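[User] Once you have settled down, look closely at the record that follows, and write a paragraph about the fold.
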Amino acid sequence: MGMGIEGKQITLDIAGLGIVFHSPDFAQHISEGDDYLTSSYSTEQQVQSHIQKGTIVCFGTGTPGTFILTFHTGYPEESFLQSCEFKLRLGLHCSGGHVCFRDLYDLMNWHRDCPNRHTVELEDGFYHVTLCSNPPESGVLGDNQRVLVYLQKLREMPPLAKQGIPSLCM
């Protein structure tokens, strides 16, 4: 990948019950101030149409709070993956060289601008995204909860589960 995402961290304070990530290219159709969540991103079918293309990808956290995302290339070691209470695989299509991570509720009152601190630079293409997390030491989900985000570049969009709205912390 060559863009040095290894160990990069993004801290997100979310009011919603999930995190959404996308390349800004794939959100061009959303107008400033739009409530895209209500109009186009609330039914399983609407969410799945994005998930399967890797354009605007979300995962449920089950709670608002502070989540610390740490980025790595490749796939996690199988033994580490098994040791994590929460895990989820998604796909991502990167276009334009970067990906923005934000509160799912940002979709309710859309602002195009994504702060640099919430952006990861990535080569354009398709990625398998593996999310791994455990409950924080306090036992309270969303209390500075760490989420490891592994990105493995692929030739095409990976096959993904076709049901439901993806959830990490269930």
